[in-house]
Amino acid sequence: MANAHGYDVSIEWTGNLGTGTNDYRAFSRAHEILAQGKDPIAASADPAFRGDPARWNPEELLVATVAQCHMLWFLHLSANTGVVVVDYTDDAHGVMTMDERGGGGQLTEVTLRPQVTVTEESMIDQANSLHGKIHEVCFIARSVNFPIHHQPQAHVL
């Protein structure tokens, strides 16, 4: 039997403005994402859906999750192949497409734009090529049903 890992989080709605959900416009979408021993994440809906723009929304968190998993696997594969990474940033972008009925939508793609700094010029090509291998092993990339594009750029310190 394969190993299984469990992940426990709690969601706590904090947006009751006094009358609960008696009207679609009468409540806040504010909530917190909680896990034992961790700081809460202040979250809401996307501002397009009456959410608070100062809080994280589920769509942003999903894009961030894709980018995080990619980065962590990239660092792992870099260490295993002798690519010495000293800096990594990513300005990831996700696209949600609404369905024609207007009641829902889905993320239809995520583009990752990793900027990677390596210690030697000879590592640049290998660093850039590692991004194409991550989809095979990244837990999140293997779990989503939308394409994940990569626009990596590696450079020397």
TrEMBL record:
Q: Which InterPro entries match?
A: KH_dom-like_a/b, OsmC/Ohr_fam, OsmC/Ohrsf, OsmC_Ohr_Peroxiredoxin
Q: Which residues form a coiled coil?
A: none
PANTHER family from the entry? OSMC_OHR FAMILY PROTEIN, OSMOTICALLY INDUCIBLE FAMILY PROTEIN
Q: What is this protein called?
A: OsmC family peroxiredoxin
Q: Which organism is it from?
A: Saccharopolyspora terrae
User: Which taxonomic lineage is given here?
Assistant: Bacteria, Bacillati, Actinomycetota, Actinomycetes, Pseudonocardiales
